[in-house]
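<given_protein>
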Amino acid sequence: MEIINAFNSFFGNYKDTFYIENISIDEISISKDGQVIPDTSDILHDFLYEQEERTIPNTKNGFVFYIADECYVIDFDDYITTDVNLYPKVTISKKGIGLDIKLFMQHD
């Protein structure tokens, strides 16, 4: 993805170019039924289960993901991510015993 971004930026093709912001687990909160859940890391590990990486697209309701039949929403402390076109997705992947969280932002 980073190589594609570099080529797109070099040739002026910003339509498919993203800024990728690394997000700390402390910079997000997860809510369920409108209530913030304190164990953010555990929920994201449960969401990944046996997969190395998962992508959550942004929707009109935010970054929504499901574990079984339970619906969760990710909120970012330092970003207002209500614009689906500006913030199209977030990826969550395993990084050792921790998590690597990347917020994709459309290049302007």
